[in-house]
Design goal:
About 70% of the residues lie in helices and about 0% in strands. With about 80 residues, the chain is an all-alpha fold.
């Protein structure tokens, strides 16, 4: 059983959420402020499936998706 025998203090929960928020926000902002045009012109995912470090068996399929789909993926990445 992995459930702790006592409730996690709300301060600890808040600190974990704050830390995760900062990591996610920082990752998004560095993409937009980094000067790489692939993120601002929404073409980053067009190249991602060719260069990802650990390719998935479905990567080839996703690489050939329409450009509009890749732009949607980048926009989703910015807003998530």
């Amino acid at each position: 059983n992995n459930i702790p025998p006592f409730p996690i203090p709300s301060l600890v929960q808040w600190m974990i959420k704050w830390h995760l928020f900062r990591i996610m926000m920082g990752a998004g902002l560095i993409k937009l402020r980094g000067g790489d045009r692939k993120w601002t012109d929404l073409t980053a995912m067009k190249y991602f499936f060719e260069t990802q470090p650990v390719p998935n068996p479905l990567s080839r399929y996703f690489h050939w998706m329409p450009v509009a789909w890749h732009k949607f993926e980048v926009l989703s990445n910015h807003f998530v």
